[in-house]
Amino acid sequence: MTVCEVGPRDGLQMAKSIMTTEAKCAWIAGLAAAGVREIEVGSFVPARLIPQMADTDAVVRFAKGIAGLTVVALAPNLRGAQAAVMAGAHRVSVPVSVSAGHSRANLNRSPDEQVAVVGGIVAWLRETAPGVELEVACSTAFGCSIDGVVPETGVVRIAAALAAHGVSQIGLADTVGYANPAQIRSVVRAVRAEIGPALVGLHLHDTMGLGIANALAGLEVGIRDFDAALAGLGGCPFAPGASGNIVTEDLVFMLESMGFATGIDLDGLIKARALLHQGLPDEAMHGQLAKAGIPRIFQRAA
Amino acid sequence: MTVCEVGPRDGLQMAKSIMTTEAKCAWIAGLAAAGVREIEVGSFVPARLIPQMADTDAVVRFAKGIAGLTVVALAPNLRGAQAAVMAGAHRVSVPVSVSAGHSRANLNRSPDEQVAVVGGIVAWLRETAPGVELEVACSTAFGCSIDGVVPETGVVRIAAALAAHGVSQIGLADTVGYANPAQIRSVVRAVRAEIGPALVGLHLHDTMGLGIANALAGLEVGIRDFDAALAGLGGCPFAPGASGNIVTEDLVFMLESMGFATGIDLDGLIKARALLHQGLPDEAMHGQLAKAGIPRIFQRAA
User: How many other CB atoms sit within 10 Å of the CB of residue B236?
Assistant: First the structure.
């Protein structure tokens, strides 16, 4: 069971203020100390578009020094992927929007054009940095605040095209948080029928309050890799209406309570929340576990 | 699919201020106008213990005038049940705690003593008011903030004792919100194996952020009757740490999105939230749907 923390990337890009590099590094170290083993630490995008990500190179270099941590960096194109590899990221995460409207707004390319960009990144990595992993997140796989309904066949088509390019780690993202549990099950099954084990994970948002229920639905159809953000930070600057990622600590509480070992310690996450709050004092922090406290009767999975 | 609104009872008993009878009635009328067909409108308990419930008689009499609405009132004992029947409630809801500590704190009786009280209410209703329904909510069925872990065998034992007394509507309540989805499935299956269709519903709290996921788990094992509170109001004065009920509008959004017809209109619930806020302006209101708005692509179940 893998919970990948995406707060330092997806969480921060909507933040009202800029978190310092030092504060980011302290937060990332706190997450790793809690047992988080995968962290998406930033994105290699132009600083004029997302100023919160201007120091991603330094953050990747810091995070690389944490033993046992898989350092993930987002890159929208080959240039960004090259920067991620140069900085030392273990894995590059590239977004491909399933809906044309979000693709245009977020990447200024059509979905098919972005699939071709991924093809170029696959080829370059194979040639230049064969040890670096590549994952692709299919954005707006469950609905789009610009285009509306996203047909399941469209998701399957994009996932198949990515798999045909040799991408072996493909995730489905509910970028705007419109998914419901029945849809999660249906889309996961349809995509898996097409690409098999190359479908690895879900990236869920809690816009409508269904994020954790959607994670449960994913769990039930075999997903074992979830993105989440401490305190439910996050959103997408080009998807109006989108709000925070699912809350890492609430997700971990559910998984551990159900007997799934995440390797993550809840007390450690609560401590990491304090570091996040120190570094970003004006940002709203979500999550029920932190409000209610860890129940005395909570038992970690073995 | 039935969503029973319990805000006017479970929601209000923890409220910091007293809602006027007029405001309660306006809120209840708003809920009914949104299509809510069952509302637990109050409880017949001593006003010195829960002053928010002092006007339950008047509220029941008002709610009885709304065509098509099933009016539910909570009663902890025979005297309360008699008052509920006198006021005209269609259904009396009686709590039985599974855990001894909560039973003592909430009812000042042991669980077995309270089962005997239920037996007396069954006999009295049969004799005096055969048209009035009786339901029993098994409190702390998934954990207790006083006693800690609540064994599944204890829940089954209490449910069986209630069924033996002829109670045909039995619900399981996660009074303090400690349940996880795997536990929901397990306890529902164990209780159903013992009492069959007399197990009708779930009463869930969102203390740990798992309330909607727990509802999904219940849905998957055949539960079609859920309690919820508008804006997630609620708690239990004798269960430290307990926070709000699951949010009616978020639950309805999930159910309708998944294709389950609730008969409830989300716009109507948003309007009822405004009435609740007018009547109780200092109370925190929860729920994601109201924050995010109803997505343009939302489709009601047919």
Answer: 24
Q: Are A231 and A243 in contact (CB under 8 A)?
A: no
Alpha helices in chain B (DSSP H): 21-33, 56-63, 78-87, 100-107, 111-128, 152-164, 181-195, 211-220, 248-257, 266-279, 288-292
**Single-letter amino acid code for the residue at A144:** C
Residues of A with CB under 8 A from a CB of B: 143, 145, 148-149, 176-178, 180-183, 206-210, 212-213, 215-217, 220, 241, 243, 247, 250, 253-254, 257-259, 287-289, 291-293, 295-297
Longest dimension (CA), chain B: 53
CB burial readout B94-130, b (16+ within 10 A) else e: bbbbbbbbbbbbbbebebeebbebbbebbeebeeebe
pLDDT at A237: 65
The pLDDT value recorded for residue A184 is 98
Q: Is a pLDDT exceeding 70 seen at residue A129?
A: yes
Is B4 catalytic? The answer is: no
If you measure CA to CA, which chain B residue comes closest to A250? B209
pLDDT digits (tens, 9 = 90+) for B193-209: 999 999 999 999 999 99
Looking at residue A34, the DSSP 8-state letter turns out to be T
C-alpha angle with apex B188: B185 to B190, nearest 5 degrees? 105
Q: How far apart are CA A206 and CA A234, in angstroms?
A: 10
CA distance to partner chain B, nearest, from residue A185 (Å): 11
Q: Can you list the domains of chain B with their CATH numbers?
A: 2-292 (3.20.20.70)
pLDDT at A229: 98
CB contact under 8 A, B297 and A178: yes
Distance CA(A267)–CA(B44), nearest Å, equals 41
